[in-house]
Amino acid sequence: MQYQHFQKQFDAFKEQINRYLIKYLDAQMSTSPDIYEAMRYSLLAGGKRLRPVLCVSVYELFKREIASILPVACALEYIHTYSLVHDDLPCMDNDDFRRGVPTCHKKFGEAYAVLAGDCFLTEAFGLISQWPDSAEMAILVKEVVNASGGKGLIAGQLMDILSENQDVSCDTVEYIHEHKTGKLIVASVRLGAICGKATPKELEKLTSFAKSLGLAFQIQDDILDVVGSKELLGKNVGQDTKLHKATFPALYGLECSRQKLADAIEHAISKLEYFGERSRFLQDLTRFVASRAE
Amino acid sequence: MQYQHFQKQFDAFKEQINRYLIKYLDAQMSTSPDIYEAMRYSLLAGGKRLRPVLCVSVYELFKREIASILPVACALEYIHTYSLVHDDLPCMDNDDFRRGVPTCHKKFGEAYAVLAGDCFLTEAFGLISQWPDSAEMAILVKEVVNASGGKGLIAGQLMDILSENQDVSCDTVEYIHEHKTGKLIVASVRLGAICGKATPKELEKLTSFAKSLGLAFQIQDDILDVVGSKELLGKNVGQDTKLHKATFPALYGLECSRQKLADAIEHAISKLEYFGERSRFLQDLTRFVASRAE
Fold first, then answer.
1. What's the mean pLDDT in B10-36?
2. What ipTM was reported for this prediction?
3. Cα A17 to the chain's mean position, in Å?
């Protein structure tokens, strides 16, 4: 019952986000063949919209109406989607399926996939620049660059590639996850908080929450790669194992990974208690991350 | 004599830009293998720095000290370099040499080249976000997204790829050049003007100047691909012809292309006359573009 309520709220957020994403993309499409077709394909092929939902729901801790945060929230989905499209390329992870359908380069060819990723990344900053308070906007840009640049997402992806078929340490696994997944999840939460004009203390609590949530998310992702099925995940499972990728189960075993997941969830929720009952949705979201099958 | 004075000033701008680029990159390099090595390689392998020089010298029409504009100017070089690194990829133009040395993917592998390009693009916005006036900074972001997103550089690159081995119209050639080269040159000039707090009329004159300069630049580039040599250009010439690419000489013939070049130069310089003697450097730069051999 509780879970049903959460799911309804999650779907409501997701619907608003999807509506904005489609409206924004369709406004840019021209009649000539263009890159937005490939972008639309990659963006609308599925996806939980976890990052924009996080951003919007954190913003809602502070403000009632969420329409004005949608461009910023959707910028996070643009960054996430760019990283997936480029990561799937043959020279990177070489994945043929994503979210249950052929990856962008399998459908449109590699050139389109490179350019579609580039376009998501570029226009993410166009979305952010719509935030009306320009002093805050400058901070948002810095946060996103920090999370996704050469000290963030790109560093994680590089280390991930360099670690393939290597014996890696626990530190390396944690480095990859923190950079490849964690930092953008933290940024999603922080952007919602900054736009909501959170106090420094609130921002600190939410950042700490987001770090644990990001860790939990990645552990569950790794576990699913071992125990999930292609039907559930919409992508080839066992890919990580096949590529000898650094994962939590490979390093710690399945049981120990599950314990680490439970610890991360508990820590994340403890940070939300500061916000009381109004953080109910975020608490449920945290539990959802740990129990999700996709 | 006149030309020597111009060259000296150009080199002085270029040196300040290069110093800033190196300082900024080196501050980010870590001891572990990282993406900044590949970025450093691509950035420092040569290049005229035309876009940042344009930005700085337009800014100098309005302001005396240029140190504060350097991050913004260098962001334009980051965008330009990202586009070169990605354009050179095997799935795009498949070029092995650039600026006289092996292209990024030939030197570091394709995965590094994709990620280095992504990192240039991401961190370009980090550089722009350093501009202290945040209301102006928001405008700069919008200008750069407009020039380099799906209605700018990326649209040009896509059309370029789609036009290979096709009979193309004059309109298509102009579309490709305007989007692939023109818009970023216009943005370089406009960013310098916006940061210099140009009046709307000044901004309009400079925009018109930049459009003609961009056209001139591209015509000369196409001409050089026909008449240049590998030694002079540092890249394989005749590539455009080999790939049956849409170029001015292919469409209009060499003589008619030279006339179009002369017209564009004349138009560009006529727009600078509004600024009188203080636009001397920009006038010389325009003539330099038309006469350059690299």
1. 89
2. 0.93
3. 14
Tokens of B256: 């008619």
The pair of structure tokens assigned to A243 is 């590529």
C-beta contacts of B37-40 below 8 A and 24+ residues apart: B37/B108, B38/B104, B38/B107, B38/B108, B38/B112, B38/B113, B38/B115, B38/B116, B39/A150, B39/B81, B39/B116, B39/B119, B39/B120
Decide if A134 and B129 are in contact by the 8 Å CB cutoff. Answer: no
Check whether B232 has a pLDDT greater than 70.
Answer: no
Are the C-beta atoms of A116 and A35 separated by less than 8 Å? yes
Structure-token pair, residue B74? 């260098």
B119 contacts in A (CB within 8 Å)?
149-150, 154
Look at residue A170 in the predicted model and tell me its pLDDT. 85
Domains in chain B, CATH or no CATH each: 2-291 (1.10.600.10)
pTM: 0.94
| φ, ψ dihedrals at B102, nearest 5° | -55, 145
Q: CA-CA distance, B80 to A289, in Å (whole number)?
A: 40
Q: d(Cα B60, Cα B280) in Å, to the nearest integer? A: 12
Contact B95, B239 (CB under 8 A): yes
- Closest Cα to residue B216, out of B250, B245, B184, B257? B257
In angstroms and rounded to an integer, the radius of gyration of the C-alpha atoms of chain A is: 18
Residue A68 has a pLDDT of 96
Give the residue among A59, A182, A38, A48 at the shortest CA–CA distance from A111.
Answer: A38
Dmax (CA) for chain A in angstroms is 54
Contact B121 A117 (CB under 8 A): no
pLDDT for B85 beyond 80? yes
Instruction: Residue A248: name the closest of A270, A274, A226, A273 by CA.
Output: A226
Rounded Cα–Cα distance for residues A238 and A226 (Å)? 6
Instruction: State how far residue A69 is from chain B, nearest Cα, in angstroms.
Output: 16
Q: Is B121 at the interface with chain A, CB within 8 A?
A: yes
Q: Are B189 and B207 in contact (CB under 8 A)?
A: yes
Give the model's pLDDT for residue A33: 64
* B:78-117 residues touching chain A, CB 8 A cutoff: 82, 86, 89, 91-92, 109-112, 114-115, 117
Q: What's chain B's Rg over C-alpha atoms?
A: 18
For B197, phi then psi, to 5°, come to 60, 50
Residues B150 and A39 sit within 8 Å (Cβ to Cβ): yes
Rounded CA-CA distance A51/B49 in Å is: 37
**pLDDT tens, residue order, chain A (294 aa):** 567 889 999 999 999 999 999 999 988 887 666 899 999 999 998 789 999 999 999 999 999 899 999 999 999 999 999 999 999 999 999 999 987 899 999 999 999 999 999 999 999 999 999 999 999 999 999 999 999 999 999 999 999 999 888 888 888 988 999 999 999 999 999 999 999 999 999 999 999 999 999 999 999 988 988 887 555 556 665 666 555 566 888 888 899 999 999 999 999 999 999 999 999 999 999 999 888 765
Distance CA B259, CA B264 (A): 9
